[in-house]
Amino acid sequence: MSVDLATVAFWIIAIVLVGSALAVVVERNIVHAALALILFFGAAAGIYILLNAEFIAIVQVLIYAGAVTILVLFAIMLTQHSMGRNSNPVSTQWWLAALICILLGGGIIFAVGHSVLVTGSTSANVLPPGSGADGGSVVRLGQLLYSPFSYSYILPFEIASVVLLVAIVGAIMIGREEE
Amino acid sequence: MSVNLQTFLVLGAVVFCIGLFGALSKRNAISILMSIEIMLNAVNITLIAFAASFLHTSNQGHLLTGQIFAVFIITVAAAEAAVALAMIIAIYRRRSTIDVGEINLMRW
Q1: Predicted confidence band at A91 (pLDDT cuts at 50, 70, 90)?
Q2: A174 in contact with B at a CB cutoff of 8 Å?
Q3: Which of A54, A171, A72 is nearest to B37 (CA)?
Q4: Calpha distance A24→A16 (Å, rounded)
Q5: Count of CB pairs separated by less than 8 Å, A with B
């Protein structure tokens, strides 16, 4: 059994990903949880690179690890009385939430194990060596998003930009001081 | 152990359930928002794993629909984070708390 570099990298990144997600959920200090969230986003970007999605990985680092975590840290700074050790409390009914999550996770994993779509392609390794020889998926992704002539997602893209504009205006209107 | 589509789907399911547990069990509104971001990233992992799988197993690989979906999910998640954090700050300004157990105006 040969172990290649991509497999080793996958398992390292997967352990970091699950561990940092657990840290975000379990950590009692909310600032530490937000810092673990940065690590989580970075590990997710590593998974995307392993899956030949370079553009998504770069966008992940820029938007999530860069912008969203800074926004979350600013909101924490504006809303905490004190950076105490118990600034991230857990509900008294956390066991019910744990039960729901275990049932849902077991259901999803059972479905993945028995799906025809998935088990029909288990032999194929999704970590291909050097399939990006023609410039990777970025060129094709750009054509699919922007091209006005061929088959593309130009209309959803424009609607997404309107959604972003509405979000900017809404955030300013909701967040500004009264009077 | 070889890494195939199933491994990525199980990873996405595990991360999604961790995020769901955080979203259901936390009392701090910002912490709930962070858990929702974890869930959105788990869905992105699943979609991109399907895109990479179809790239090599079918003749529809040039479509890259999974990655297109991931781009739109990231866009909507960024908009959602901005609006939700503005709402949290507005609630904190009026009520001096972001504990979701104490924001109970619409409680049945």
Answers
A1: confident
A2: yes
A3: A72
A4: 12
A5: 243
